[in-house]
C-alpha cells in the first residue's frame, strides 16, 4: 500500500540539500579510516587503475578515472560492469599491475557482483567503494571505502554519487601525497553550503517559468562523466529526454537540435575555458536556452548564459567536481515535480538492479 502522506520528492530534495554536511562528515571519517592507509600501503605500486560501475556508478567511474590520472599521474580508465562481463578481453589488461575498483551504492548490484566474481577468479584483488557496509561487495573485496553517512531513502543517486566521488578523490590525493588537493577537498563543503540555497532557488525558478522539450548536458575532461550523470538525473526524475556530449563534439552534428525549447547545460572547465566558451556563444547565437555551471565566470559567460550558476569556490579545480553536479540533480528534481511526478520513486526504477541468475 502506498504512503498517502508522502510528499513527492521530499526525500530527494532533502538528500540533495544535505550534501555539504554529509561531505564534511564523510571526509572526517576517511581521515580516520584504516582502509585508506591499507590501499596506499598495498597498492601504491599499481601502474594503472580500472574503475567499474553501472548507471550512475559508471558515470562516477568516468569522473573518478579522470581525477585519478590528474592526481596520481597513472593511467586509469572506466568501464561499465557489463563490458567486463561480456568483453573481458577488450576491457581488462592481462597484467597484475592493474588495480580494479568496483563501485556500487548498495553493494548488491548484480552486474557489479558478477564483475567482482570474475576478477577474483582471474586472480585480481579489488577495491570496493560503496555506501552500505556488510553487503556482498564488501565481503568479496580486499579493501572497502564506505562513506556510510551518504545513506539515501530515495531511488535516484544524488548524495551517494558525490560522496563516493569524494572518497575516491581523497584516496587518490593520499596516494599521490597531494596535501594541497586534500586541503581544497576539506574546505569545499563549508564553502559550498551558502551557495547551495541560491542555486536551488534559481534552478527551481527557471523550471517553473519555462517548458523545455529537450535537455542537453555538455562537459569535457572530468566534466564529461558529470555531463552523463546530469542527463541521467533529468531522465530518471522527470522522465524527460536528455542527452550528454563532450562540449566541443556538440558542434559535430548534435547542434542541429538547438532551439529555444532546448535547454543546453554547460559544465565549464578552467583548462578548456576559452574553447568551451566558443561553443556556448555559438549555441546562444543559434537560439538555444543556456544554463551554465562555472567557477569564477566572467562577463563573457554572463552575456551568453540565460542562467549562470557560479559556484565561487577556491582551491584546486578538481576538488569542486562534486559541487558541479548538484545543479543537474536539482534540475531533474524540479522538472519532475513540475510534471506531477514523484522523483523519490521514478517509474520503472528500483534502488538496486538485481538480476535473476
Task: Indicate the mean pLDDT.
Answer: 93
Q: What is the end-to-end distance?
A: 29 Å
Number of domains: 2
User: Which CATH architecture of the largest domain?
Assistant: 3-Layer(aba) Sandwich
Provide the CATH topology of the largest domain: Rossmann fold
Helix and strand content put the structural class at alpha/beta
How would a textbook summarize the main sheet? 5 strands, parallel
Order of helices and strands: HHHEHEHHEHEHEHHEHEEHEHEHH
Tell me the name of the CATH homologous superfamily of the largest domain.
Answer: Glucose-6-phosphate isomerase like protein, domain 1
- Tally of extended strands? 10
**How large, in whole angstroms, is the Cα Rg?**
20 Å
CATH class of the largest domain: Alpha Beta
* Number of distinct helices: 15
Inertia-based shape: globular
Which strand order do you get reading across the main beta sheet? 2-1-3-4-5
The share of residues in extended strands comes to 5-15%
Q: Uncertain segments of ≥5 residues (pLDDT<50)?
A: none
Helix content: 40-55%
Q: Can you walk me through this structure?
A:
The structure is a single chain. The chain has 357 residues and is α/β, with parallel strands linked by helices. The protein has two domains: 10-177, Rossmann fold (3-Layer(aba) Sandwich); 191-338, 3-Layer(aba) Sandwich (Rossmann fold), CATH 3.40.50. The chain has 15 helices and ten strands. 53% of the residues are buried.
Question: Features of this protein?
Answer:
357 residues; alpha/beta; Rossmann fold; 2 domains; five-stranded parallel beta sheet
Amino acid at each position: 500500500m502506498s504512503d498517502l502522506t508522502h510528499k513527492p520528492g521530499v526525500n530527494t530534495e532533502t538528500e540533495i540539500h544535505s550534501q555539504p554536511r554529509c561531505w564534511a562528515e564523510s571526509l572526517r571519517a576517511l581521515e580516520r579510516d584504516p582502509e585508506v592507509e591499507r590501499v596506499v600501503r598495498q597498492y601504491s605500486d599499481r601502474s594503472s587503475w580500472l574503475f567499474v560501475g553501472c548507471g550512475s556508478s559508471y558515470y562516477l567511474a568516468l569522473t573518478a578515472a579522470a581525477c585519478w590520472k590528474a592526481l596520481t599521474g597513472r593511467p586509469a580508465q572506466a568501464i561499465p560492469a557489463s563490458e567486463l562481463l561480456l568483453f573481458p578481453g577488450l576491457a581488462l589488461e592481462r597484467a597484475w599491475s592493474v588495480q580494479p575498483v568496483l563501485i556500487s551504492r548498495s553493494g548488491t548490484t548484480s552486474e557489479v557482483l558478477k564483475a567482482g566474481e570474475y576478477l577474483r577468479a582471474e586472480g585480481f584483488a579489488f577495491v570496493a567503494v560503496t555506501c552500505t557496509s556488510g553487503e556482498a561487495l564488501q565481503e568479496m573485496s580486499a579493501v572497502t571505502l564506505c562513506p556510510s553517512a551518504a545513506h539515501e531513502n530515495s531511488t535516484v543517486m544524488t548524495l551517494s554519487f558525490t560522496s563516493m566521488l569524494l572518497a575516491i578523490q581523497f584516496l587518490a590525493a593520499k596516494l599521490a601525497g597531494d596535501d594541497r588537493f586534500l586541503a581544497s577537498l576539506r574546505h569545499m563543503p563549508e564553502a559550498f553550503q551558502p551557495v547551495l540555497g541560491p542555486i536551488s532557488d534559481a534552478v527551481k525558478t527557471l523550471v517553473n517559468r519555462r517548458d523545455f522539450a529537450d535537455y542537453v548536458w555538455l562537459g569535457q575532461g572530468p566534466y564529461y562523466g558529470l555531463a552523463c550523470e546530469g542527463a541521467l538525473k533529468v531522465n530518471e526524475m522527470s522522465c524527460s529526454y536528455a542527452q550528454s556530449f563532450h562540449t566541443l563534439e556538440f558542434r559535430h552534428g548534435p547542434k542541429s537540435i538547438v532551439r529555444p525549447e532546448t535547454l543546453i547545460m554547460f559544465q565549464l572547465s578552467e583548462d578548456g575555458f576559452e574553447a568551451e566558451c566558443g561553443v556556448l556563444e555559438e549555441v546562444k547565437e543559434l537560439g538555444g536556452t543556456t544554463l551554465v555551471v562555472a567557477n569564477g565566470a566572467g562577463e563573457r559567460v554572463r552575456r551568453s548564459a540565460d542562467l549562470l550558476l557560479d559556484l565561487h569556490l577556491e582551491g584546486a579545480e578538481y576538488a569542486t567536481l562534486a559541487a558541479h553536479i548538484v545543479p543537474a540533480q536539482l534540475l531533474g528534481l524540479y522538472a519532475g515535480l513540475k510534471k506531477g511526478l514523484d522523483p523519490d520513486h521514478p517509474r520503472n526504477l528500483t534502488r538496486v538492479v538485481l538480476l535473476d541468475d
